[in-house]
Amino acid sequence: MHRITEFFVGLLFGLDLLLSGMTDPSKVLGFLDLSGTWVPSLAFVMGGAVAVGFFAFALARKRNSNSNFLGGALNLPKATQIDKRLLTGGLTFGIGWGLSGFCPGPGIVSMAAGELKAAVFMAAMLFGMAIFEIAERAGSRRRMGA
């Protein structure tokens, strides 16, 4: 049952990305171009996502349970500080989004639709994630003295 629910939630998310225009890199880049012909429509998409997330997290924090509505583990973020890692990650994400017009969700949807640019973006993102993992493991070994 969990996998069926996950599939339909993912399908709904993908359809929302298509309908909102988040899978169109030119629309995304137009949204990010504040000094040119700014396309404000994605601000409403982002605002809606932030509102849904805000209320969902508020509801999750109020529940007296460590499981979600489907019975799976509920792992809420514990960090409350804005640190160098968060800023670096956000900056890296923003640069990638600004250069390509894709972020991970729309990249997956566009790649599945056969768009070559999205496939290149996804490959570059996975490569970057692998480099991060290698660097993290090397850093943790150094901290442990191994």
UniProtKB/TrEMBL annotation:
Keywords: Membrane, Transmembrane, Transmembrane helix
TM spans (from-to): 39-60, 86-112, 118-135
Pfam families found in the cross-reference section: DUF6691
Source taxon at top rank: Bacteria
Name under which the protein is recorded: Sulphur transport domain-containing protein
Organism from which the protein derives: Acidovorax benzenivorans
Biological classification of the source: Bacteria, Pseudomonadati, Pseudomonadota, Betaproteobacteria, Burkholderiales
